[in-house]
User: Fold this.
Amino acid sequence: MIYGTGYLHSMEIQYDIYSRASGKIVSLAKGYGAIRLILFGSFLEDPDTAEDFDLACNGVSENIFRLACSIENVIKIPVDLVELTPSTRFTRTIERRGKCLYDEAEKKRVLLSELFDDNRRRKSTLADLQEEISIMLELMGNTVQQALFEVNQMNQIDEKVQNEIPLQAH
Assistant:
């Protein structure tokens, strides 16, 4: 079902109306519970000759008419708002051909992907650090072993020397 306010006026629609208001449109839609927002129709194809602003959304349900009015108040041109659910041939066409302005699921996928990449970099860095620490410990272990060996040798030499020198009687 398409919802709109029927607000018509004779003004040339300029693309900069959309570009200046797109952030506000997305914020409004999110405020009404939208989890997805897609621009489609004449404004997407030729903003200079479009007579209205066509949007499709998910998650708004009973607030769809209020959202359409709120967006229209911001951009000052007629707005038609289409629910994407239930899926129909029309809504699938919108999904294929429209321009996605906001997609909560895509946002989550991107965040998860970034987290995965960060985690992979951290693991790589951690693995590098573990290898460096292992090498340092090995070197330190060798140094400690070498030092212990040298101390042991010095103790043996001291024992030999003490055994070879007769004790002086007092």
